């Protein structure tokens, strides 16, 4: 975030933080707390078990529901006259999440235990939610070493993984090398899509047809 991005925070009453282990957001929040003390900061990761220091808690239904709970409570406290409006919106959103969850479970029926090869480990919670196993090339945001790449390729070959899931901004050279070594397809998954609900469905579709 640029200084002007941070300055926009001055117009806000509440900052709903993703929280968890989101490193760049910690730096952003420090600036917000120091310069705009009137803004209430709500950590939306509270109550969510953070696994392997992975911040991507908005990429599975249970995580989204917990985030919705924090948003509902924060808005209701700030605008108590609209509590019923916020409550109904939360109910509607949770109903949609439950519907999406059931749809995705059906996509992966009979595919439990399958492994998915990803460049960046964004999909840890998603994989766990649907009894899949994420095999990640990057680890904690670190550039993979030659040995890391060899280990991943060996694992992919062992389990006959034929699809590599990348993200916008993935190292093209490394992804191409892995793709060539495995004779694999490559598909893009974007954990930062604005429409979180629809993104879960589209992600599930891409993954399920690859298994």
Task: Describe this protein's structure.
The chain has 211 residues and is an alpha/beta fold. The protein contains 8 helices and 6 strands. The chain has helices at 3-8, 23-35, 61-78, 83-107, 124-129, 146-158, 172-182, 196-208; strands at 14-17, 40-43, 115-118, 133-136, 163-166, 185-188. A 4-stranded parallel beta sheet has the order 4-3-5-6. Strand 1, helix 2 (23-35) and strand 2 form a beta-alpha-beta unit. Helix 3 (61-78) runs antiparallel to helix 4. The two termini are 37 Å apart. The mean pLDDT is 90.
* H/E element order: HEHEHHEHEHEHEH
From the structure provided, what is the oligomeric state, counting identical versus distinct chains? single chain
Overall mean pLDDT: 90
| Uncertain parts | none
Distance, first to last CA: 37 Å
Major β-sheet profile: 4 strands, parallel
């Amino acid at each position: 975030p640029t200084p002007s991005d941070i300055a926009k925070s001055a117009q806000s009453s509440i900052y709903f933080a993703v929280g968890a282990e989101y490193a760049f957001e910690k730096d952003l929040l420090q600036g917000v707390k120091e310069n705009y003390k009137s803004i209430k900061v709500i950590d939306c990761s509270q109550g969510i078990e953070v696994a392997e220091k992975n911040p991507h808690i908005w990429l599975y239904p249970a995580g989204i529901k917990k985030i919705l709970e924090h948003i509902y409570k924060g808005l209701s406290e700030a605008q108590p006259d609209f509590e019923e409006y916020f409550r109904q919106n939360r109910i509607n959103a949770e109903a949609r999440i439950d519907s999406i969850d059931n749809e995705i479970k059906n996509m992966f029926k009979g595919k439990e235990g399958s492994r998915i090869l990803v460049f960046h480990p964004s999909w840890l919670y998603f994989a766990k939610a649907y009894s899949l196993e994420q095999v990640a090339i990057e680890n904690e945001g670190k550039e993979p070493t030659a040995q890391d790449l060899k280990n991943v390729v060996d694992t992919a070959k062992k389990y006959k993984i034929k699809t590599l899931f990348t993200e916008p901004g993935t190292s093209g050279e490394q992804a191409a090398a892995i793709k060539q070594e495995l004779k694999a397809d490559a598909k893009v998954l974007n954990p930062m899509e604005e429409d979180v609900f629809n993104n879960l469905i589209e992600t599930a579709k891409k993954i399920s047809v690859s298994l």
